[in-house]
Amino acid sequence: MNKRINEQLNKKNNSWIGQIIILITLMIILAWSASCIDLGGYTSAGASMALNIVKGIFTPDLGFLFNLTPQGVPYLLLETISIAFLGTIVGAVISVPIAFLSATNLVPKPVAMIGRVFTMLIRTIPAFIYGLMFIRVTGPGPFAGLLTMSFCSVGMVSKMYIETIEDLDTGILEALDAMGCTTFQKIRHGIIPQLLPDFASTIIYRFDMNLRDATVLGLVGAGGIGAPLIFAMNSYKWSQVGAILIGLIVLVLLVEVGSSKIRNKLTRG
């Protein structure tokens, strides 16, 4: 009995030693990372710039915020939503065959490995790089943003689709097969009901991500509200910057609330 107690005490002491070593290692990494921070560029002009940005947010250009012309915030936000939505739908549709060809429970492993490598290669390229590439091909505008969102969506959505397909309950398919159901009936009543909620939840989640990415892509000329935002900042029109940021905040909050409710409904039934 005493031997077991001593063993447990030794294990506890060893665990504390390991935790201390990990803590010291993390502190060393943190100190080394902090040494790379250079505060030499901070000047009083930077503080003044930050103050002007805050003032612009709290004193937005209401005429620009409620301008319903193509140059106004509502139209630019609508264009951003359209880019994100269409990019998500196109990417989700393309991801379906890729996911089925990459699922190890449906196709041979060599074929599945090719599909997985393809999706991995797509995911390795940032959205910003895709935007710059497609702008060179199609020119600046919403279409370049649409193509960028589509490619970025394929990388993530197909990965989530693959995991959902591989988690299929095969017992349902075996039961339908025992009942004499046709292949179409097994797909209709055994596969689609299992995949649809997770697929829809993944699409909604990706739309949230694309909405934010579409704003950033506007900075490189891929349509949306990003370009007017950077132009207003370069021109020091902080009231217009405030109007754009307020529009973006309201838009993201509305989309977040709506998508969260839809995802919860899909998950809980």
Explain the overall architecture:
This protein is mostly helical and 269 residues long. It folds into 2 domains: 2-37; 59-268, Orthogonal Bundle (MetI-like fold). Helices cover 81% and strands 0% of the residues. It is built from 11 helices and no strands. It has helices at residues 2-34, 44-58, 62-65, 73-102, 109-124, 127-138, 142-166, 170-178, 183-217, 226-234, 238-268. The protein is globular. The model has no long low-confidence stretch (mean pLDDT 79).
Tell me the layout of helices and strands.
Layout: H1 2-34, H2 44-58, H3 62-65, H4 73-102, H5 109-124, H6 127-138, H7 142-166, H8 170-178, H9 183-217, H10 226-234, H11 238-268
Helix pairs in contact: 2-11, 4-5, 4-7, 4-9, 5-7, 6-7, 7-9, 8-9, 9-11, 10-11
Number of strands: 0
List segments where confidence is low: pLDDT < 50 over at least 5 consecutive residues: none
Radius of gyration: 26 Å
Percent helix range: over 70%
Strand content: under 5%
Report the CATH C-level class of the largest domain: Mainly Alpha
State the CATH superfamily name of the largest domain: MetI-like
Largest sheet: none
Number of domains: 2
Q: What's the SSE pattern? A: HHHHHHHHHHH
Mean pLDDT: 79
Structural class: mainly alpha
End-to-end Cα distance = 53 Å
CATH fold name of the largest domain, please? Answer: MetI-like fold
Give me some keywords for this one.
269 residues, 2 domains, 0% strand, globular, mainly alpha, MetI-like fold, 11 helices
Briefly, what is this?
With 269 residues, the chain is mainly alpha-helical.
